[in-house]
């Protein structure tokens, strides 16, 4: 029997009005011209397994690549939060021990009160997870501060099964390939140092994101996700 290669894709649903509505809102958001007073910020996250070496690796030589023992020790997990501002050519990685509502709110508050302190509002593109809510800020901060933060966020949720529409997911994929994959990080501190170095290097050398897909493209190429109008 011939073995066939399987390719894994995020397959969008068929005739799904909610998917279409969120997709078009996201695409319309990406078409907005750059406005430093109301920037578009994308965010995504992923867990990372922390692993300690059980034996000291042998460094690379002219004849051999670096050699690492097969055995390792599990050292818990960490969470990577990726923030990307496509039109500014900027991205930042935050590493925390957990991925809870409070962790998410703390990281966003840090940006809203830091990098975006003088912005009227931030349009936030993110997945519609139960941790990405206005209520998360009220679990992390006292009401007055929570309200001040929430007032300055305009949520733009990507559709369910449509996380590929999030620019931050693409940035996270690049981070994984270039910095995290096939490496062992023994603790949060080391992971944080390495991912911070990655984001600094990419910010210094890479331009902004040129998102090509428009609403008209979606209506032409993704006709199957648009429902039939019932009158």
Written account of the structure:
The model has no long low-confidence stretch (mean pLDDT 89). The chain has helices at residues 17-30, 101-112, 135-140, 143-150, 167-180, 188-205, 215-221; strands at 40-53, 72-85, 90-96, 122-127, 153-158. The chain is of the alpha/beta class and 231 residues long. A hairpin with a 4-residue loop joins strand 2 and strand 3 (90-96). The protein is globular and about 70 Å long. The chain contains seven helices and five strands, in the order H-E-E-E-H-E-H-H-E-H-H-H. The longest helix is centred in the last third of the chain and has 18 residues, at 188-205. Strands 3-2-1-4-5 form a five-stranded mixed beta sheet, with helices on both faces.
Question: What would the keywords be for this entry?
Answer:
single chain, 231 residues, alpha/beta, 5-stranded mixed sheet, 7 helices, 5 strands
